[in-house]
Specification:
- The protein has two helices and five strands.
- By secondary structure, the protein is an alpha+beta fold.
- It has one domain (2-144).
- It has a five-stranded mixed β-sheet.
- The relative contact order is 0.24.
């Protein structure tokens, strides 16, 4: 139930983007699409902005039985190929959520908190769908948007 509450809060918070810039979460400086040199995805994490409960992460080497870390293979079908570059965020964006993608070499893409490519919104929705055992359908996407 705590996971469902965290996911619900993330969805509501993601729907709002007003206020002043959030200094702790600068725009990404590297916007090219990662290539094979970064290796495979090893971790996906939804992070509430500016704060709030976090949803479970998805990791390549997730320990069995740990509900705070899920196996990455559970959302494999939602991973975009290739990953798109992050979108520039509006100056007044200080609420929502980031989806952080970590590759094998430690390279990260941070999507959000207010604007994300549609393929990343689909990935977000797939993550929430898996964590929520499908109970969020058909509105598992950021801010309660449709997906996956």
């Amino acid at each position: 139930m705590k996971v469902l509450a965290a996911v619900a809060i993330m969805s509501v918070v993601t729907a709002s983007c007003t206020g002043t810039p959030w200094a702790d979460h600068p725009l990404p400086t590297h916007t090219s699409t990662p290539n094979d040199s970064h290796g495979p995805v090893v971790r996906l994490q939804l992070i509430p902005i500016p704060e709030g409960p976090t949803a479970p992460s998805f990791e390549r080497d997730a320990p069995s039985g740990d509900r705070s870390v899920r196996p990455l293979k559970q959302v494999q079908e939602y991973l975009p190929v290739p990953f798109p570059p992050p979108l520039e965020q509006p100056e007044n964006c200080n609420m929502g959520g980031n989806l952080v993608v970590t590759f094998a070499d430690g390279f990260e893409f941070t999507y959000g908190p207010c604007k994300r490519p549609s393929s990343i919104n689909r990935l977000w929705a797939g993550m929430v769908y898996v964590v929520d055992d499908g109970q969020c359908a058909p509105t598992c996407g950021p801010g309660g948007s449709a997906g996956p």
